[in-house]
Recover the amino acids of this structure.
């Protein structure tokens, strides 16, 4: 019964979404307030119905109800509880249900916390949001129904893909979807604004927190995925420019651009059409990502078996969304008039440069990702575009971006003076030079790009701190005065500072790990020692171990440095008998300067020898730290009061306080 | 500057950026596009040693040999032709005889020296190129049945 309830609730959610997608939009057009008012209860009802549906599927997983095909295919009674739960979205059908759930939750959040939105705008935003929902409900119900029964019910399930039985990947999809789907709000606001023919500062104030929340979740989601690939796949790498990775990176790039251009709309009432355009592009790229991942049209190391019929459905959905929204943009876009003027060298100018560089970067990544599809379609043969292309194209675009990132926040609005800035940042330049020199002294064997990368990281880090120093007139006014100014710095500004500083840490980590990774693959007999980056790895042998639902071979490496014991690493090679699949569990010991990373491979011969792969990955922990700092920046900025209140209406303030948490 | 000229400046900057990106992209494409070959195509066409290529098909049954130092030899087949492969390192977790595989590297004297064997996360996943290669060699019907039996066909089991 529970399963049928879940299915029925999903159908009900579709019906409610259909109402929500029509009446409020028509009502807003005709000025019918009763119809417009339908949006709010409908959005909440839709969210409740999908929640019930999702709850029912979760229940089927928790109770191991093997009369449900989806549970049979992706679960097993012997699986640990956490993976029974994460198994709900560890497969196509369940993950699409999570997708529509998040879509409905975001819609309901706008309905509840958007009490002070103008009624027509609110009706239109929720209407557009429901239109998107309808498309995905149809997709789930017609091509990917998670509630399908199987008769007779088998005694046990096939189990969940062991690679997915991992804490990092258990929470990766929800974060990623919160990001992807979060951009649907910016999209709905953009479409609603086009229908209204009006984009103003208030509109931007409404869009910014949603975009920021989505951006933050997407950053966390991509970071979690990358972290997972790093420790679970045992390749020692964390980013492969794989189509599936690019699919999540594309909306991140344009979403980051959107985040910055919305600031200009809010503060300076210009770049309106461009911001609306970016909002449409960002959500379109999210959908494109979903299509690339779900359809399996591209060869990916992260791909899962796919069904072409589903790909076609998403492609149609994608074409409707992109076609419809761009047609609307072409028709209504020119009516968005800007009032704020500015010179190329100004805060606006630097934000525009940021936008140009980020969207150009998104364009080339998109080109590289889709090129194989395009070439195949015109019969040009089957190709793959690998990391060399992306590195050659993407990195040069990031260099000016990072240079500008430190200067942009120092520029005043409207018009700035680059020469004056240059004189002000001498300190930053000096410290950057020192960082480059130190890199050159201590890591003389590194490639040239490493000096550039470390220099840029230092430039951005010091420049970001310098900006806070300038803001508080540190060392120029009295300490008391600086302290007072420091307390007055808004949370949004702190958020920006943290996020930019996080990028600097990230860039340092990426540069160092690309430049100075030490890798060694060899066969090791028990007692043999290999030296890597000053650490001696001694292989002590391997033995058979058991986990809750797997058997493993666990190798032991004792690591010493200068004859003193440093750590013990225990990499595993697991076999999951239910799924008949192997996984590699790398053993990692992080230090401030890098990761010691060990992987154990196949046994070789009978004398206990194993193929082993050992790495020293310099500054990789900085990559994760940088991403965490960026997300913290997002949280801090979201907690700014100005982000919580859409319009200066005191009555709703208490309510709106909760909105970031719900987002 | 007048607003018109100002806008022109931005447009010009934008165009210059796009141009630079396109130039970068085109020059990078030359070197970093990796063509995919099926074992039959490797035999038919002459593939230069200097070019990196991808070869995909099935890992031939009984062809995996392990040697000292993590060196692995195996053969990739499309059921019509085979290509011998040499690879050093730890193979991906889902590398198995009779299953689809894509390897990247260079062809020297008829032996494919792979420096990368692409992993997958799902044993039911078949890279699209491999499926096409098998279709082209006319062995797909035969393979389809075998794959379905082993549950390896796309769509056969829900991902």
């Amino acid at each position: 019964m529970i399963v049928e309830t879940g299915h029925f609730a999903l159908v009900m959610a579709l019906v409610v979404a259909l109402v929500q997608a029509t009446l409020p939009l028509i009502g807003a057009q005709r000025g019918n307030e009763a119809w417009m008012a339908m949006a709010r209860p409908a959005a909440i009802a839709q969210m409740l119905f999908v929640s019930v549906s999702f709850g029912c599927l979760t229940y089927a997983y928790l109770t191991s109800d093997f009369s449900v095909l989806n549970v049979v295919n992706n679960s097993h009674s012997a699986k640990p509880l956490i993976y029974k739960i994460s198994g709900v979205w560890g497969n196509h059908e369940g993950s699409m249900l999570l997708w529509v759930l998040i879509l409905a939750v975001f819609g309901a959040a706008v309905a509840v916390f958007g009490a002070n939105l103008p009624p027509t705008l609110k009706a239109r935003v929720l209407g557009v949001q429901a239109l998107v929902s309808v498309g995905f409900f149809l997709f789930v119900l017609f091509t990917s129904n998670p509630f399908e029964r199987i008769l007779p019910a088998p005694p046990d399930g096939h189990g969940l893909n062991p690679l997915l039985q991992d804490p990092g990947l258990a929470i990766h999809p929800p974060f990623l979807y919160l990001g992807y789907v979060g951009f649907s709000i910016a999209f709905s606001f953009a479409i609603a604004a086009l229908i209204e023919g009006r984009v103003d500062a208030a509109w931007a104030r409404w869009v910014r927190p949603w975009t920021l929340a989505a951006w933050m979740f997407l950053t966390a989601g991509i970071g979690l995925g990358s972290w997972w690939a790093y420790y679970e796949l045992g390749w020692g790498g964390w980013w492969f420019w794989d189509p599936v990775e690019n699919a999540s990176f594309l909306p991140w790039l344009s979403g980051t651009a959107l985040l910055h251009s919305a600031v200009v709309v809010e503060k300076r009432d210009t770049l309106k059409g461009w911001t609306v355009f970016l909002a449409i592009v960002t959500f379109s790229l999210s959908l494109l990502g979903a299509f690339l991942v779900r359809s399996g049209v591209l060869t990916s190391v992260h791909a899962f078996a796919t069904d072409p019929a589903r790909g076609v459905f998403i492609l149609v959905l994608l074409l409707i969304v992109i076609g419809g929204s761009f047609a609307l943009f072409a028709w209504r876009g020119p009516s968005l008039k800007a009032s704020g003027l500015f010179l190329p060298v100004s805060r606006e100018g630097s934000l525009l440069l940021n936008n140009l560089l980020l969207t150009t970067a998104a364009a080339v990544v998109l080109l590289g990702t889709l090129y194989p599809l395009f070439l195949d379609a015109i019969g040009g043969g089957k190709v793959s575009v690998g990391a060399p292309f992306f590195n050659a194209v993407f990195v040069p675009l990031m260099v000016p971006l990072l240079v500008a990132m430190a200067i942009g926040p120092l520029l005043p609005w409207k018009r700035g003076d680059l020469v004056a800035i240059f004189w002000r940042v001498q300190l930053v330049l000096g410290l950057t030079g020192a960082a480059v020199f130190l890199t050159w002294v201590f890591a003389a064997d590194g490639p040239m790009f490493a000096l550039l990368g470390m220099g840029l990281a230092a430039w951005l880090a010091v420049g970001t701190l310098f900006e806070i120093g300038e803001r508080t007139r540190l060392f120029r006014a009295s300490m008391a005065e600086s302290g007072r100014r420091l307390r007055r710095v808004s949370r949004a500004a702190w958020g920006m500072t943290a996020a930019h500083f996080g990028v600097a840490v990230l860039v340092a980590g990426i540069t160092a790990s690309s430049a100075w990774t030490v890798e060694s693959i060899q066969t090791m007999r028990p007692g043999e020692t290999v030296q890597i980056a000053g650490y001696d790895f001694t292989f002590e042998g391997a033995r058979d171990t058991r986990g809750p639902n797997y058997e493993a071979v666990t190798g032991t490496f004792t690591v010493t440095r200068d004859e003193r014991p440093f750590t013990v690493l225990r990499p595993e090679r697991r076999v999951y008998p239910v799924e008949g699949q192997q996984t590699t569990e790398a053993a990692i010991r992080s230090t401030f300067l890098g990761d010691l990373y060990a992987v154990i491979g196949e046994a070789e011969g009978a004398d206990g020898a194993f193929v082993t792969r050992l790495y020293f990955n310099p500054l990789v922990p900085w990559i994760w730290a940088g991403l965490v700092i960026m997300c913290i920046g997002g949280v801090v900025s979201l907690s700014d009061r100005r982000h919580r209140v859409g319009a200066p209406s005191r009555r709703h303030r208490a309510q709106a306080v909760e909105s970031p948490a719900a987002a | 500057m007048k607003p018109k000229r100002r806008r022109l400046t931005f447009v010009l900057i934008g165009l210059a950026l796009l141009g630079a990106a396109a130039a970068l992209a085109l020059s990078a494409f030359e070197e970093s596009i990796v063509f995919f070959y099926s074992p039959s195509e490797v035999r038919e066409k002459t593939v230069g040693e200097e070019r990196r290529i991808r070869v995909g098909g099935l890992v031939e049954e009984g062809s995996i040999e392990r040697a000292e130092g993590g060196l692995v030899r195996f053969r990739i087949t499309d059921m019509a032709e085979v290509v011998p492969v040499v690879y050093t390192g730890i193979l991906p977790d889902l590398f198995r005889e009779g299953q689809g595989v894509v390897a990247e590297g260079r062809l020297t004297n008829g032996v494919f020296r792979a420096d990368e064997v692409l992993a997958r996360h799902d044993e039911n996943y078949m890279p699209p190129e491999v499926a096409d290669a098998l279709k082209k060699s006319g062995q797909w019907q035969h393979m389809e049945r075998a794959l379905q039996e082993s549950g390896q066909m796309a769509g056969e089991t829900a991902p």
Observations:
- Confidence is low (pLDDT under 50) at residues 150-159 of chain B.
- Strands of chain B lie at 33-37, 53-59, 65-66, 71-77, 82-88, 100-108, 111-117.
- Residues 3-32 of chain B form the longest helix (30 residues).
